[in-house]
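Here is an idea for our session: we take a single protein and study its fold together. To get us started, please write out a protein record for me. Once you have written the record down, we can walk along the chain together.
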Amino acid sequence: MKKQFLTIILLLISSLIFACDCKWGGNFIKSSKYSEVIIKAKVVEMLWHFEDGKTLSSEESYGDYLIKTDKEYYQSIKVHVIELIKGKEERKTFEIYGSDGVDCRESIHLFEIDKVYIFGIYKTRKTEYSQPNEDENDYAIGGCSEKWLEYFPETNEVKGYIKGKNRRTKRKYCYEKLLKKIT
C-alpha cells in the first residue's frame, strides 16, 4: 500500500512540473463528435510500461520494479469491447494509453478494473514522444475534453460531464438517450 501511495505522490508531483496546456474542449456530447471511435468497454487489466520496454500488469508488483530500477513509467488499460458505438474496430480487446497529463491525455489511474465505461478514443500515432510499447494499433484517450463516462448496467445509465459548459457537476443520464445524441 505504501508503494502505491508513493507512486501516486510521484505522479502528482510530475504532473505539476510538466502540465499539459490545453483549453477545456467540452462535455462528452460535444467532444464525441470529434472521437474516431466510441465504445462501451469493460476495463480488464491495468498495465505499467517502463522506458526499458518492460511491461507489468495489475497482477504483478509494479511498485517493486519501480523502486528497484527507478525507471520512468507510463500506463495503459486493456479493455474488452462490449459495444462499438461509433467508428470501425474489429478487435474485442486492445489497449488504451493515457498519461500523467503531460501530453494532454487522460490519466489512466481514474479507471477501475471490472468497471464499464463509455470511451471516446483515437488511434495513436508513433512519434518521438510515444510511450514505450505504444504503436499504431493502440488507442489513446484525450484529456482536454470529456472523453469517458462511467456506465451503470443495473440502471442503464452513464455518469460524468455529459452536457453543459463546465466541469463542476457530474450527472447521471439515460444511456439510450445518450446514444441518440452521439450517433
About this structure: Strands lie at 37-50, 55-57, 73-86, 93-97, 116-123, 139-140, 148-152, 157-160, 171-174. Helices lie at 2-17, 28-32, 62-69, 175-182.
